[in-house]
Amino acid sequence: MPTTVDLEKYADLIVRTAVQIQQGQTLWVNAPIHIPELVRLVVKRAYEVGAKQVHVEWRDEEITKLTYSLAPDEAFQEYPAWRAQAMTELAENGDAYLLIKSDDPEMLKGIDPKRISDYSRVSSAALSTWRKYMSSKRVTWSIVAAPSANWAKLVFPDLDSDAAVEALWEAIFRAVRVKTDDPVAAWAEHNRTLLAKRAYLNAKQYKKLHYRAPGTDLVIGLPENHLWNGGISTNERGTTFNPNVPTEEVYTAPHREGTNGTVRSTKPLSYQGNLIENFSLTFENGLVVDFQAAKGYETLKAMLDLDNNSRYLGEAALVPHQSPISESNIIFFNTLFDENASNHLALGNAYPTCVEGGPAMTREELIEAGLNQSILHVDFMVGSAEMDIDGITADGKIEPVFRQGNWAF
Q1: pLDDT on residue 226
Q2: 247-285 burial by CB neighbour count: b if 16+ within 10 A, else e?
Q3: Is the pLDDT of residue 217 over 90?
Q4: What is the DSSP string of 174-221?
């Protein structure tokens, strides 16, 4: 286990920066059962800063695997209505939600992809109101991480299980700036840097972005009045929070029908407990019309076929190659980390906050504004030290945005 000091600093960062608990607010924590020490510290710190109530929902990946292996098919055709209602009420009450990720990236290897995609559909439908509240920042939420033995062994295969877990704790702490004297202050400074990048790009209002790298030649159109987000978010009550810890990105939504060309992945993607590696996607007028994968082809196909809009892009995110996670030279096999080492894109749903007035728009109005709407939202990594990105203005002027994987401004 890591030192108590590091765990306490991490818990404090989670409570005061990631979800920034307010006086009288309820916090819902979804956590794996094998990290009780961290969860107890989060609960303690939340009450210390004024939480009214902290509800902990435990999960166990071994039970998850047993369910997917042994439950009848009809189990994957329904989602608990009581949980969907509870999540919706949490958002409507202005409370906070924390997800601590720790799952084995290959947890569901060998499971029938149809079971996984069926449950994805029904859970996404049941949680549609909750997802809308999340994407419009009505609710405070954040995703953080802690090691599991299986995940750690995948990241550090040459170490024994205990040593791998220790190494992954250390890597996580460095990625989230826990190893600084004051992590909360370090994150305040980091958020100011991301805000400056957002302001520059929002002022530019590029018409298109042109990505070039080995295996990638892709042009992404951007909607009118698009907005760049990233780092700190602000909920409808004016409270700031960090939805992802760590994060190094600024992001916006591509125009639903504006993407053309081919993009190649640069890191493995863990999707629904399966790994997809060395894959490429070809787009025409926004739609994926061809795809390849060296590993996980059927999983990729199931993801692309999840609904009618899952083959369109919902996010384009910029991350400098010179960033703490990238410079660690660690492949985490976890999107929360790997996406923050690399420029990335997301298939599926676009966030309403990526266009002016978006949070107040209906689904139909968002599509009309150029933002894709889907039950899917999956990030995949495309950046590298060899990637150049140009911004193309409305009058056709070409300006450098990234050169050799890093900011060009």
Answers
A1: 98
A2: bbbbbbbbbbebbbbbbbbbbbbbbbbbbbeebbbebee
A3: yes
A4: HHTTTTSS-HHHHHHHHHHHHHHHHHHHHHH--SEEEEEETTEEEEEE
Q: How far apart are CA 366 and CA 387, in angstroms?
A: 30
Query: Where do the domains of the chain lie?
Result: 4-175, 183-241+248-407
Nearest of 227, 220, 203, 214 to residue 136 by alpha carbon: 227
Is pLDDT above 90 for 88? Answer: yes
Structure tokens at 372: 């894709």
Which pLDDT belongs to residue 138? 86
Say if residues 96 and 140 touch (Cβ distance below 8 Å).
yes
| CATH class of this structure's domain 4-175 | alpha beta
Which tens digit of pLDDT belongs to each residue from 100-158? 999 899 999 999 989 998 999 999 999 999 988 988 888 999 999 999 999 999 999 99
- Assigned token pair, 46: 């939340």
DSSP string, 248-271: --EEE---TT-EEEEEE-SS-EEE
For residue 141, the one-letter residue type is W
pLDDT at 137 (0 to 100):
82
- 218: tokens are 């892709």
Q: Residue 72: its pLDDT value, please?
A: 97
Place of tokens 């999707």: 271
Q: Which residue type occupies 394?
A: A
